[in-house]
Specification:
With 185 residues, chain A is an alpha+beta fold. In chain A, 44% of the residues lie in helices and 12% in strands. In chain A, a hairpin with a 2-residue loop joins strand 3 and strand 4. In chain A, helix 3 packs antiparallel against helix 6. Chain B is built from 21 helices and 30 strands. By secondary structure, chain B is α+β, with helices and mostly antiparallel strands. The chains are: A alpha+beta (185), B alpha+beta (772). At the A-B interface, helix 1, helix 2, helix 3, helix 4 and helix 5 of A face helix 1 and helix 19 of B.
Chain lengths: 185, 772
């Protein structure tokens, strides 16, 4: 069947058997002409236990090994490589790199996706919230301490960015308010 | 209580991995690639030991009738010795006569797609005549026990060995206090996130080209060559970053199967990736061990004698069984000064899954025993358990339990002193007494150690190759796989510092037998030590060479007046500089290379014992650690919560603090899983815990903010004073949990793992706590 969805901001139209797993479809795309290579979506268990295949589906963390390709239809899919790249890493990715949250790195793309979903739902999580939020993603190397450190740091940075954006927006709003002062009163 | 983040340059692989750009062996799927899969009949039927009569021919026809299934290969198709094994070649690539464990493969299927492969494999049926199996290592040593390798001289005993100094039997008889204990330790899964995998292709020029998730690419050539009857020097093995290893990718996993598949693929590439279940069924495990111990001391706690008997279950094949047991035996007396020791070990074949290398290599199993006895002794004598350890801790110049004089850095005492002064320890009594209702609290402290390198008799050598590229950049040709511990980054950092370059200015070529030099396996806490030393020599040679080559164009008479600076050779007196990019063009390609080697030192006067070990005894250098753990036990459920964990490690001088902490924290987390809930279950050789829902590894909710501290030591023989710290961290958690549980429950738990069921049973053995 023909499937159309958005992958890391790029529209994708592809033929796939309806019973194909989403993780397989995504990992095979890179071999097709003009398709994004998203081999950053890993497979660690195939049974929904490890979280390495995590992707964002319309902003929600999903395990692509438990999704059928057909379930991607019409959705917006974001993988770790869609959040940022080496030249322009996402704040979460930069925090992972700088805080030593990366060792073998095989769980990392899924972990970064989980962190993005977590911070979207809760922009100011405590360490226990972070641990709970990442508890569906297994890591065998780090012992999680630096992963939690990284997500904490990323939350601070994103909050800072948000505040800056809000300040700018407030500033604009004020100017707007001034301009409109006469007409709205 | 957290380790403050240390300012450190990020690892060289940090950004490529965090952004998902890094490509692993698992990600290799070249165009036109075929897919190979092994048929393991015992996994389906539960038969762990059986005579292979053959494949059911109708089932083979049915498999080949699946569109896309190309070949069904059996042992008869294997062109070489069809045997693999690092020390003993006893493991068939495909079993033609006998299967010896439930994960043994009897056929290999080649298909055009993963779907066709799955369907084809599912149609295969093997005719296997069940044979009586043996699943208990002690039963396997009894007369009349089923033989795992029929006709083998020595029967099921792979290796029996003795380490002895003084007269432990006599000394135990006269010791004022003797404590005893029996322990059993379960197997452990490595559970790396990237399962065993790779791709192989027979190139038109006859070279077999393999990219594989491996800890030992150079040795793999010989494994494959021997098994398949190929010239090992016509095999090229590449090892990109591994998605975890921990010992489980040291030795052949997919290598020989992939090589075989490639021989029948008409030049097309072939991919093989085990799924999680196959990884469990066919992968190597940490050895299950039974231990019987006696420890004698004076009334003041001075240790006098230790005697123990260890039985290691190596499963169906030898793999590194003898060597794992060797290291366990060498550490069996703990990091303590004991004049009389007698350590007996037997490593035994059974029809259980294959045991092999795993971080802590035999030592993680003996640690709960020697540390358990130390706690028992402290309790018996009414001594502080930490002070008892400090009193007996090995110091530089002492003789360890195997009789090796410790001439290298030995800073266990500093670790223990730091633990004794730490808040987690000094406030332990008030903390314990403040337990909320229905909760028991306990605090444990342990001392552990782990040897470095291959040991005497097996030269621990690395050969570093360093290039100044035509463009004036430095390139390190790394010969030791990076399974995630970050040695590739450590090499880049070492070289950049030694060459006076900015961190990050040196690039690293990952292991490739076609481009790099053999430098041994990524194992044994040796990687950064041995290769790092070789690399520093290569850097020194390169610096000398470049200064000399720059002297003429810079018109400088004395090399001492020149310096290697970022991107250039400089003459500080005049400010003149020759950019490396220009200098490189003056040099012919062979002059832009430096190759140096390093051989790890061994004990010069080895003790007159351990004669049964062919290789690897004894070790000279050790990393040490003191760990403190605080736990809470739920009185209603027996569940253990690890509240705080402190690891103080002696790894010599610290090169990269973040990388050091990563090893400590990661080792502790893996050890906590081992101690508390990694409950590997098997019945008659059939594994019951085949996935990550039944075999539980720690999640972010199961481990605390592990605090990692370093003592400021220096190992003079190490690169920049460092020692390997990859292994020692995993040896602490199991005894630390036992010590804390002992305090919380009043019971000495000696059978791992300490599951809620076992903890609850321990609580019930004890009188109910008096309510205040």
């Amino acid at each position: 069947m023909k499937l159309c969805f958005t992958l890391n901001g790029q529209p994708v139209a592809v033929d796939a058997a309806p019973d194909k797993r989403a993780v397989d479809l995504l990992r095979e795309l890179g071999a097709m002409p003009d398709m994004p290579d998203v081999k950053d979506v890993k497979e660690g268990c195939g049974t929904g236990e490890c979280g390495a295949c995590s992707v964002l589906v319309d902003g929600v963390q999903k395990l692509s090994c438990l999704l059928l390709a057909a379930q991607l239809e019409g959705r917006e899919i974001v993988t770790a490589s869609g959040l940022g790249d080496e030249a322009h890493p996402h704040p979460i990715q930069r925090a992972f790199a700088e805080h030593g949250a990366v060792q073998c790195g095989f769980c990392t793309p899924g972990m970064v996706v989980a962190a993005a979903a977590l911070l979207q739902a809760n922009p100011n999580p405590g360490r226990e919230d972070i641990r709970r939020g990442l508890s569906g993603n297994l890591c065998r190397c780090t012992g999680y301490v630096k992963v939690v450190d990284a997500v904490e740091a990323a939350a601070r940075e994103l909050a800072g960015q948000d505040a800056a954006r809000r300040n700018r927006a407030v500033g604009k709003g004020k100017r707007k308010a001034k301009n409109n002062a006469g007409s709205t009163s | 209580m957290r380790t403050p983040s240390q300012p450190c340059p990020p690892r060289a692989d940090a950004f490529s991995k965090a952004t998902g750009a890094e490509r692993y062996a698992f990600d290799q799927q070249p165009e036109g690639c075929l897919f190979a899969g092994a048929f393991r009949p015992g996994a389906l039927t539960g038969v762990a030991h059986g005579r292979v009569r053959g494949l059911d021919s109708a089932s083979v026809r049915a498999a080949l009738a699946v569109p896309g299934v190309l070949r069904v290969l059996t042992a008869a198709d294997v062109p070489g010795a069809n045997l693999q094994g690092i020390v003993h070649k006893d493991q068939p690539v495909l079993c033609g006569d006998v299967i010896r464990h439930a994960g043994d493969p009897v056929a290999l299927v080649l298909a055009e797609s993963p779907e066709a492969l799955r369907t084809g494999l599912a149609r295969l049926v093997a005719d296997i005549e069940p044979l009586p199996g043996v699943f208990d290592p002690e039963a396997a040593l009894k007369r009349g026990a089923p033989q795992v390798h029929a006709g083998r001289k020595g029967g099921n005993l792979l290796l029996g060995a003795l380490i002895e100094k003084g007269d432990a039997r006599l000394a135990l008889k006269s010791a004022p206090v003797v404590v005893r204990g029996e322990f059993s330790i379960q197997p452990q899964e490595h559970a790396f996130l990237e399962t065993q995998c790779g791709v192989a292709q027979l190139l038109p020029d006859g070279v077999l080209d393999i990219t594989v998730s491996t800890q030992a690419p150079f040795r793999d050539r010989f494994e494959i060559g021997n098994a398949l009857g190929l010239d090992p020097f016509r095999i090229r093995v590449r090892a990109p970053h591994l998605g975890g290893g921990f010992g489980g990718k040291d030795g052949a996993t997919v290598q020989c199967l992939l090589g075989l598949a490639a021989l029948f693929a008409a030049g097309r590439p072939v991919r093989m990736a085990w799924d999680r279940e196959e990884s469990v069924l066919a992968g190597y495990k940490r050895h299950a061990v039974r231990l019987r111990y006696a420890l004698g001391a004076q009334k003041d706690g001075t240790l006098v004698a230790l005697s123990c008997r260890l039985v290691y279950d190596t499963g169906a094949y030898a793999h590194l069984g003898g060597e794992v047991m060797e290291l366990g035996m060498e550490h069996a007396a703990g990091p303590y000064r004991i004049p009389h020791t007698r350590i007996e070990g037997r490593c035994v074949y059974t029809n259980n899954p294959i045991a092999g290398a795993f971080r802590g290599f035999g030592v993680a199993q003996v640690s709960p025993a020697f540390e358990g006895l130390m706690d028992e002794l402290a309790a018996r004598l009414g001594l502080d358990p930490l002070a008892l350890r400090r009193k007996n801790a090995l110091l530089r110049g002492d003789e360890n339990g195997s009789g090796v004089r410790l001439t290298g850095s030995t800073d266990l005492a500093a670790c223990l002193d730091a633990a004794a002064a730490h808040e987690l320890w000094t406030t332990r009594e008030t903390w314990r007494k403040a337990a909320p209702p229905l909760v028991r609290r306990g605090v444990g402290c342990v001392a552990v150690f782990n040897g470095m390198g291959y040991g005497r008799g097996l030269p621990d050598m690395a050969i570093a190759k360093l290039e100044l590229t035509e463009g004036g950049e430095f390139l390190v040709y790394n010969g030791v796989a990076d399974m995630g511990q970050g040695n590739a980054s450590a090499f880049a950092l070492l070289a950049a510092t030694e060459l006076g370059q900015e961190p990050g200015a040196v690039r690293v070529v990952m292991p490739d037998t076609g481009r790099c030099h053999p430098s041994g396996s990524s194992s044994a806490g040796r990687t950064t030590y041995t290769y790092g030393n070789a690399l520093l020599k290569a850097c020194a040679a390169m610096r000398e060479k470049l200064l000399a080559r720059a002297a003429m164009p810079l018109l400088v008479d004395s090399l001492a007046d020149l310096e290697l600076a970022p991107g250039a050779v400089r003459h500080p007196a005049t400010g003149r500089a020759m950019p490396l990019a220009v200098l490189a063009r003056f040099l012919p390609p062979e002059d832009r290379l430096c190759v140096s080697e390093f051989l790890m030192p061994v004990a010069q006067n080895p003790p007159d014992t351990g004669k049964d070990f062919l290789i690897g005894f004894p070790h000279l250098l050790f990393a040490y650690a003191a760990h403190v753990a605080r736990i809470e036990v739920d009185e209603l459920t027996g569940r253990v919560r690890v509240c705080d964990y402190l690891a103080i490690t002696d790894g010599g001088k610290v090169l990269h603090r973040q990388g050091f902490d990563q090893q400590a924290q990661g080792g502790v987390a893996q050890g906590l899983g081992y101690a508390l809930f990694e409950d590997f279950r098997q019945v008659q050789g059939r594994i019951l815990t085949r996935d990550l829902s039944t075999y539980l590894i720690p999640t972010a909710l199961d481990v605390p903010d592990i605090e990692s501290l370093a003592v400021d030591g220096c190992e003079k023989s190490g690169p920049r004073g460092l020692k390997g710290v990859g292994e020692v961290g995993i040896n602490g958690p199991a005894p630390a949990m036992a010590a804390a549980l002992r305090q919380a429950t009043g019971q000495w738990l000696r059978h791992l793992p300490f599951t809620p069921e076992r903890v609850l049973a321990a609580l019930k053995n004890r009188k109910p706590r008096r309510r205040a």
